Amino acid sequence: MKSYREELWFEIPTRRALVNITPQVEASLRRSGIQEGLLLCNAMHITASVFINDDEPGLHRDFERWLERLAPEKPYSQYEHNVGEDNADAHLKRTIMGREVVVAVTQGRLDLGPWEQIFYGEFDGKRRKRVLIKIIGE
Amino acid sequence: MKSYREELWFEIPTRRALVNITPQVEASLRRSGIQEGLLLCNAMHITASVFINDDEPGLHRDFERWLERLAPEKPYSQYEHNVGEDNADAHLKRTIMGREVVVAVTQGRLDLGPWEQIFYGEFDGKRRKRVLIKIIGE
Amino acid sequence: MKSYREELWFEIPTRRALVNITPQVEASLRRSGIQEGLLLCNAMHITASVFINDDEPGLHRDFERWLERLAPEKPYSQYEHNVGEDNADAHLKRTIMGREVVVAVTQGRLDLGPWEQIFYGEFDGKRRKRVLIKIIGE
Q: Is B38 in the A-facing interface, judged by CB distances under 8 Å?
């Protein structure tokens, strides 16, 4: 069994953004040399997400509006977490979007459906944050 | 290490449905011959879900009503994604329900709790769509 | 390839609670002797969750209030599942919070970010319930 580990670093200039990281994950898989196995890709921060969906800007604006409806950023005072913090909503938004994806590795490639793209979801940006890629297989 | 890959195909006649796929996943695991490991089962489409919950029809009707409350299908115009599309709600519903499950494989069996059943959640049906099963172990 | 399996048992005295299980999961990993691999930790019950977030009491009260807003416990009659049952809301709350986490194992440690902690989320307690830990690697 082989294993491979890599971190991707981000510093998103806005509070929230969705970033397509599929090319970086594919490049990491190539560097691993693993042909068959499983790839874990997870946010290492609890106010960010890694998820799979469509790379379509209209849908991304829908996600923004929808997450704001389900877990609004403001007023900050509505959340007990926001004592010296203002990011409770980011913890909740990331819960909806998910922490991680596990992707099959087949013949050295990410085994994704035709429209599946991997995203980093930032919900409390303007700071350096990380994503972990861990691949096991052979 | 062994690895095994299989696709399950669906063509759901309605827009939305929840289908218990536990027997198909178990059959796939038997074909793999893997005794100890991890099994990934994921929707390969971004408007469908694989999730684990209870096989109880009342609960499934509750899921339908609840998802319609959190991410209503109509009016289609409420979503920016719906330009030549009408399935933005399906992307959001699948986000709530999740893309994938990872299940332990122990002594050649799906290592599930007593009520855990694996479901395919279709939120934009009437077309052919796929689920991926990838198993690694030995 | 090595594999390791362990169950954690809980009997939460209240209907709902969030319990930090990171120390138990770390202890399980040490017992496994696995240095590099993947660790799956999942609720074996469909009204409970395993998730990763922050160990901050204010945030946990925010989760309680937020989940009650998205999937209220009462009135019980609002759910079709609640025929001889009263836990439909627990199935929905656990769906939001997620069934499982997959964590990378690196150099014999849980490869978590600085604030990542693993929680058992109970949404229908006052009974004995289990979490499964399955680790594969070498």
A: yes
